[in-house]
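Input:
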Amino acid sequence: MKSIAKLDLQYAHRFYGFKGEAQYLHGHTGILTIEVEGSVNPGVNMVFPCNEIQKTAWDVLKNFDHALILREDDPLLPAVLDVYEKQGIRNGAPSNTMKGPAFKTELATAYPECRLVVTKETMTVEGMIKIVYDLLKDKLNIVKLTFSSGVNEASEEYEPHLNVDRCPLCGIALDENGVCPKCGYRKA
Ligand SMILES: [Zn+2]
Ligand SMILES: [Zn+2]
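Output:
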């Protein structure tokens, strides 16, 4: 059985080098749907609490929300950083609090302090799915991702690949010591 969680990401980007409107900076509300597979946990009668999927995903993905997403070779990147620098917000601002942990994968690097994500490839809906899977595959047993943004939508399916030990009381994943981070349950 699957548990499904959705989250919204509002971001700005452009397709650098693309011959169309999308070569200009513009924004979207993207909707990401994450489908997680698992056995139904008899104690709580759910695969994985959807709010926990959301929490786990949001912790990382909030770096994409109200963020600027640019490809690493886009000349806007040094230009924007220069403006942020001069304005004194390059390394953070008191109002910029919704920051996830900085991350760097082969496909994307997040700079939460200035709400910027730099990508290796153009950030299309397909590109976003690759980035998200890479960021979350070790945390969630993802079997399908769907990302829609405006009229564009893409999805990809994956083989179940994680066997997550879950708390029989809360349904959430136990930590590496077999302890529930929420209620303290300890695996015998
Ligand atoms: Zn776009
Ligand atoms: Zn628990």
